[in-house]
Amino acid sequence: MPTDAEVADADRRFAEWMRANLDRAAAHFGVTLTGDPVFGWRLRSIGAPARDGDGAARWLRVVSEFPEWAHGEFWTGNTDANALPPSIPRPRVLDTVEWAEGRQQRAELATRLQGRPCSATDAPTNHLRLDPAWWAALRRTLATLAATPTHRIHANQEWVSHRIRSAFGDQLDAHVGQWETVHSDLHWNNLLQPEFGLLDWEGWGRGPAGTDAATLLCCSVLAPTTYRDVRAIFRDVLDSPTGRVAQLYATARLLHRVDMDERHEFADALRAHARTLLESR
Known about the structure:
The protein is an alpha+beta fold.
């Protein structure tokens, strides 16, 4: 079992390697990095603002994955999102390049949206003050997305049932009565303000109706006022039969991740949310 110091040193060396990958991608696309890089979950990805030769603002991202996972819908999700309706405020991937270097690397050069992330983390602890126009843009975006046909699959019934029953018991009814196209990772670090925008389209596809509202609610459990705001905005979605299943599914998915990261306060709040759902069934 590696020591904490050994893990920290390995992470440092991997982060340096990812910075080198970002520099390589910038040279390939002929862009200049203009800000500090931002790392994704467990250093799997790295991204930074950039400008192209014409001075246009861009975002450059490199994702690193083991070869056996570097394929399929999740691997191409950001590029596939180019086919979504233009009314959905999202980055547009302009070019990609891949190369193998131990792991498979994929670089994506995309347009850069105005605005800044609503939170530096997926689950903030502070109240987020967002105006009514922002909330209206969010609901409009999710409604447009939900009605957009796609062959991409975020989750099917088997996967939803597996997630819920693994987390909360084999006897639960996890039947999904309604399906729609979902973003699937709607948390506060993927949402921009004051100009509304939605980032990170890796996992979008068909899923339980209400998945996005449920995920955002679960990512608000550490900020009670924001939690109440999300519930008020999406009450019709969340209180529907499928919306309640979507909340259990979203909770189970997030618990799987936060338990791995030992984010105990977030995990405790998610379990409390799940207990409230289960007690009211």
